[in-house]
Amino acid sequence: MLRPFISKKEVAKKESKKSRDTDTETHTEKPTCMDNLFRKFAKLVFGEKHESKKIIVKGKVVLMKKNLLDFNDLGASVLDRTHEFFGQHISIQFVSATHAVGGSSDKKLKGKLGEPAILEDWISTITPLTATESTYEVTFDWSEEMGLPGAFIVKNLHHSQFYLMTLTLDDVPGYGQVHFVCNSWVYPVENYTKNRVFFTNKAYLPDETPELLRYYREQELEILRGNGTGMLEEWDRVYDYALYNDLGDPDDKKNVRPVIGGSSEYPYPRRGRTGRKPTKSDPKTESRLFLIESYKIYVPRDERFGHLKRSDFLSYGLEAILKFLLPEFQALTDATLDEFDNFEDFMKLYNGGIKLPEGPVLETILKDIPLQVVKELIRSDGEGLSRYSIPKVIEADPLAWSTDEEFAREMVAGLNPVVIKLLKEFPPTSNLDEKLYGDQTSSIRSHHIEEHLDGLDVQEVLKANRLFILDHHDSLMPYVRRLNETSSKIYATRTLLLLQTDGTLKPIAIELSLPHPDGDHLGAINKVCTPAKDGVEAAIWKLAKTYVTVNDSGVHQLISHWLNTHACIEPFIIATNRQLSVLHPIYKLLHPHFRDTMNINASARVVLINAGGILERTFFTGPYSIEICSKIYKNWVFPNQALPKDLILRGLAVEDSDSRHGLRLLIEDYPYAVDGLEIWSAIKAWVEDYCKFYYKDDDMVQNDAELQSWWKEVREEGHGDLKDEPWWPTVSSVQDLIDNCTIIIWVSSALHAAVNFGQYPYAGYPPNRPTLTRRLIPEPNNTLEYKELEEDPQNFFLKTVTPQLQSLISVSLIEILSRHTSDEIYLGQRECPGWTMDAEPLKAFEKFGERLKEIEERIVKMNEDERLKNRYGPAKVRYTLLMPSSEEGLTGRGIPNSVSI
Known about the structure:
The protein is of the alpha+beta class. 38% of the residues lie in helices and 14% in strands. Plant lipoxygenase may be involved in a number of diverse aspects of plant physiology including growth and development, pest resistance, and senescence or responses to wounding.
């Protein structure tokens, strides 16, 4: 329960002042014993009329005490109880939205402060062994002068932080139930320079905010913006911008990397600022944390993973791979460890197991890494054999992945279905600067493909919109020479595909390109490969598909996944928290779609995308990974992230008012687009209902100061390297706001789901999605390599693709990335059912949820339709990545609200 409370310090202060401060930033005084005696005397003389009538108001507080992952932090629990024993409590004090305080020292209009009350039963409430909610009864002495509480101040005089979830008052006189949704960590008071304030669960536009709450609304935003200086600590609540200057190590020549962002050469979205000191060698580079300290990287505390979040295991799990398993594997003496000797070796990952190192290594892991982390990382049968789940791509048929049909199907229904385009001119051309790269026009000609065109000529199939291309040429060609000077050996690829009469795609030509040996300015040296079933030509065709898949794997991870979802969304998260109050309706709309993103991105900077990190170790892009990513970001266009616009630009759809969603797909059985348009339309309808409830006309949008500051900061700060691009939309109308918010939600939820949760189902089997190649196709001039290719194409393939060690790391990573957590929140769900007090948005959200259920039922029916061959394919993997709901685990379905893994 909560009861009125006064500390000894406050009593001493009161007696020394001999006066009452009616409004301060830190506390409200309670009457002394002498005051109470005087008041009792006054009641006898004057009666009750000079004292406001007081009543009792009850409710409940829901919070979680400080725990570490799934384990109770006993030290914190003991210290908090000690603080309670010595009178250092948790207090709550309400701020009136209807009655002003008199005599404010800073002359600012503020709501009257109610009497503080303390959380009394902390000592008697046993902290659970796992991170669970604790509920406390609340009792306040209530005065009529309080009126409607619009906010409350909470002070934590304990040793440890706690997670405050909700506060609900059951029966406020004249107002009924009042609900506060908090969902925030509250640290001890000494960590703050300003009070922690929480607002009621009602949305207000800035100029509609109750006058008495505006001071607190503005102060809260000032706190969240910070002052732009100093190293940020875990209790700081500051959202600020920084460049990607923390990926390299200038003190280590192997790990020197350029600063990404802030220049025309290396443009990039901004990331969250940590304020760590610069390195000694380069003042422009931020110092890095030791791997063992990776969990300490600063993100605002409320952006960190929840207690049960399996994503928190990402840092620990990858740390274990890098720090413990990798050196041990490398130290083993097995001469063939670095190779899969045959395809049966791959199957041991799932059916038998890879023998794990024994002895001190596993003992160290068990000692230093929480048990559930170890279970994720080391899926062991008890005999030291690491086992993995069978990826869906080989579950029904272990050979179907290698067919041309499955190779093509995955371009529209696999884990990277966002790159394929309609071919509009033949032969394919290039947009690379001819002065730098010479003539990069494709060498594919009619004679290469006409036998595969169903009796038609090239112009006929081109005119019929039946030729498509997976083009990784321009994005990679500028780096091929440098990449091939490393252990990687790649080509830049173009793949032509024919749309067949049954709706499936057939690969008909692959072009493998290398820079001219005498200089980039002399153009490309091209090799054109076409389908073959026998002899060395069949082996070369299989290798050509492999080089395409390797290209696609790198582009998928770097661009489709990391850049276009993780990196590009982070500036929106920072700007939203800096410029939109928690009271703002657009904050309430977008906030669920930002859950855990800054945390996963911070972890990625420490162990994934950093110099020498997992991505550089396992993908062909190596040390140039984020540099390549930066070059492609130059072409990022925010409005083009809208699914309908993207499909039109790639030539996969045309506007058609008679078609569903106003678009006609050129590949009718394009599962990503078909399901995606359903989800897109549902999101847009929900956003439209929501925005039109708060904004009745365009003037309201234009006059919303917070909204305009938000969008200005997204453009000029968060994506500042592209701020002068003419394509930036404005927020001048209700429709602008609907369009922009729809894109943000789509990218954060459905687009990320489509390119993330298919990773293990398809790439969990390394031959289907290799991440690197180590040699090129040998020329037929009697070399030993060419002879090996002729006589033992399987062995040549195995020695060309990702070796065993990198494969093990990659499979471990993507299994973590592809899993849903037990506390995941999916599209159409909210963390708190009563997330707003406004009834109409709640109804609209309920309608959104019902529509998503209908979409899911529709997807299930389409997946059962045998005519839709791209939804199933030779590997018999149904397209489920855009089904909205999921259970916990490795399901290959489900759309979380946010980029949370």
